[in-house]
Amino acid sequence: MSQPASLSRRMIARAVAVGALTATVAAVAGCSSSDAAAPETTSTAAVAEKGGPLDLASVCPATIVMQQDWQPESEHGAMYNLVGDGYTVDTDKKTVTGPLVVDGTDTGVKIEVRSGGPAVNFQPVPALMYLDPDILIGAVNTDAAIVANADQPTVAVTSQLTYSPQILMWDPASHDGATTIKAAAAGGDPIVTSGDVIPNLLLSQGIITASQIDTSYEGTPQRFVSDPKILQQGFATAEPYIYKNEISQWGKDVGYQLLSELGYSVYPEPLAVRKADVTDQADCLKKLVPIMQQSQIDFLDSPEHGNSVILDLVEQYDTGWTYSEGVAQFSVEQQKKLGLVANDKASGVFGQFDPDRMSSIVSDFAPILVSAGSITQDAASAIDPSELYTNQFIDTSIKMN
Where is the secretion signal located (predicted)? Predict the structure, then answer.
């Protein structure tokens, strides 16, 4: 079975090839380690009240392992924001381990955040979760959850980003100042992506024609710079800044539109657990999920610590992935400005899943994934949208202002 035909930057080595980019790294209280087991960490944070909502020691694993699907970046800020000072870094395995600290309070357990992408040979997060039972939480796009559901079912327990930051971008000067994908694509120019989900979604809406689909995007800026008539995939939280400020051959604004405005409705990287852990780890999740809800909000309000951890890890991991302080700050600004992180429209609660949205995601994307060969028709027909998520651990009092 093939991997999800997703447009995610995290399934390609986009920035590895953008070799001219330079990461500006903030100094933090971290140290390097390549040991198989991370050494004990020390924390100067206040200890959580025993039995209180931030005391995780009695109900959670001693180390809460979280698996990301790509290398460190500000879209993952909620996880890295919880890594307290005194953390250790395994530069071989591309993991960071430290005290799990919430707003200055040590929860009594550690957090380990594992990098994805090249660090795990681009294996999908559900596969990693079923290979290693130590992983409690994984960042699993809804379309990836659909693909894995038959053999590696995961259940999303809270969203982080509410709407996908994925975009198609173009050169306004080459497309008569177009401000929408429909207008930019009207001339029949190529739609260059790394997968066929989004092109097929746009094709189904009559926005593009089949002849425009080009899935040869390998993650570099060279073609866009040399052929500005194309429309190319990207992220609203990265590429507009990178192309204007860090790619000297371009050095100007790009036009773009969020694909979420055109039906790309999947939840991007919601936090998920193995299906059995909804029951087996219920006591832990009851406390941990509200912490993750609040951490996303806290990160956007005060991103300094989370971003400093992210930038330090990018430097220490030294994978060729380039991520500057400017991009990190831009990501936070865009997440807020574009409403990518928002309360659930149906309930008004941050991090809660909308049952109707989940049902429409399955009905809209399962056929596309079948056509792409990512899942069988039988597997698609067997999916119950309500089994892909749960709101039972959500703290309904947590809302964005």
Answer: 1-29
